[in-house]
Write a structure and sequence with these properties.
- By secondary structure, this protein is mainly beta.
- It has one domain: Pnp Oxidase, Chain A.
- The protein has two helices and ten strands.
- The N terminus is likely disordered.
């Protein structure tokens, strides 16, 4: 079984009304520290409010035979996108890390000499990383791991700020990837 020592369902959310139901998913980006400054040396490990597990579809091939049709499974077409929803407090650590990653891919930092230039080769430059989505049981035992290969943030949702809210900052991130595997 994989080491899950950094994850504990009660960490930092002990006062949440239903901790186990709301914090059973973890997103890990182990190599994010290699491209985004100010990310911990182990990369980014954070619990998420919810996520979508990608689906897939199989094309159907129709063969006409003696006035009828027979159907056969064709090529598998897996989804190449998933979403995750983050909840943060005032440190905005995850938001800053993902925003920094997106800025790197599009070179929107005006302090760089090639600012504004879209990097078509961003994957070969190391910006497409391996991302892990881990699912845990109620008693914090790892039950399943999804590995997303060549993954990068496609969209960073808007963050609503309001005095009416509980002080939590919530936003969605859309991810694009090449392929995924169910590891465990």
């Amino acid at each position: 079984m994989a080491d899950i020592s950094p994850f504990h369902v009660l960490n930092a959310q002990a006062n949440h009304e239903d901790v186990q139901r709301n914090w059973m998913w973890q997103l890990e980006i182990p190599m994010l520290n290699t491209i985004v400054k100010d990310v911990d040396s182990e990369g980014l490990k954070t619990r998420i409010k919810d996520a979508s597990i990608p689906g897939s579809d199989i094309d159907v091939m129709e063969i006409k035979y003696m006035g009828g049709s027979q159907f056969f499974p064709g090529m598998r077409k897996p989804s190449t996108e998933f979403t995750s929803n983050f909840v943060e407090t005032e440190d905005h650590y995850v938001y800053a890390a993902i925003h920094g990653w997106m800025s790197l891919m599009q070179q929107t930092d005006d302090r760089l000499t090639n600012a504004g230039a879209s990097l078509m080769a961003s994957k070969s430059n190391g910006y497409g990383l391996t991302v892990f989505l881990k699912l845990f049981t109620y008693d914090a035992v790892l039950s399943r791991t999804f590995e997303f290969v060549g993954c990068w943030p496609k969209s960073l949702g808007q963050v609503g700020l309001s005095y009416d809210s509980s002080g939590l900052v919530e936003y969605a991130v859309g991810w694009k990837y090449d392929n995924y595997h169910i590891v465990a």
